[in-house]
Amino acid sequence: GRESAMAAAAAAAVSGAHAAARFTKNLSPDKINLSTLKGEGQLTNLELDEEVLQNVLELPTWLAITRVYCNRASIRIQWTRLKTHPICLCLDKVEVEMKTCEDPRPPNGQSPIALASGQSEYGFAEKVVEGMFIIVNSITIKIHSKAFHASFELWQLQGYSVNPNWQQSDLRLTRITDPCRGEVLTFKEITWQTLRIEADATDNGDQDPVTTPLRLITNQGRIQIALKRRTKDCNVISSKLMFLLDDLLWVLTDSQLKAMMKYAESLSEAMEKSAHQRKSLAPEPVQITPPAPSAQQSWAQAFGGSQGNSNSSSSRLSQYFEKFDVKESSYHLLISRLDLHICDDSQSREPG
């Protein structure tokens, strides 16, 4: 048993190294192997592969990554507890540059993790990488668009897998797989200490030259993400994203408010085109082959049943999946307390 566990860990190390190498432009699997086989390692000055990240993050096609850089990364892996405990990845400073696409870019490709492990379906390598606990000291995201440019700065960011009730737990409880549907649900949470957002009009001649930059600083916040994917190819079917903020105090001038509406309008067209593209490329419904009896038996045992009542356990699993199912993609913004002030910014005031 111990030998087979070590062999599985070694195989995971190799596929993990190849997957990690796919994420980077300036790193070979050998270099990663040497450090990660020991269970910990450090890497510096990483240029990450934009297209691979787009695929992993399932970015909408109206948005494209143009550059990602990380000055220092360290990794800690508990090889013998990969099924239950996450790999811990610590990043010091991350810089991301993106652009909006007036016409949608090509759709996201296949999962690089699955490709690196030599399998297209949702397997062990995918689960391990997906379950990673990521800590980022600071991240700057710059977005360039025809109408505006924006920057997002986040400090003390953490990203990790959670169970369907948004609590950290054993990694095996952070996903719900229904073999009958051929689908898997996974749940993630991202938290941060401080978020600073700044946006300003792009100076391209046809804009109103006098615009006031938009600025917003918030304290703690979090994003909760539920993803539904096909197990046979790891493709995302639908997702639910919730942006949660505790307190938000924002003072806006009327020109800033107008600018914000103009920026939103400029994005809506690109988002609409992207949505049309997604609908036109949507695959035909797939007929799922019922799982083999052995798979049903293992699920029966996992849910406390015996081999004899695998049908009832499949039914319970189906109900559990149904309870947390992501029927369609949606985005939500929840603010516990919003304090918004809008004021006139005219410089010339009437005397008296």
From TrEMBL:
The lineage of its organism: Eukaryota, Metazoa, Chordata, Craniata, Vertebrata. It comes from the Eukaryota. InterPro entries: BLTP3A/B. This is Uncharacterized protein DKFZp686F10110. Residues 294-314 have a biased composition (Low complexity). Pfam families: BLTP3A_B. Residues 274-314 are annotated as: Disordered.
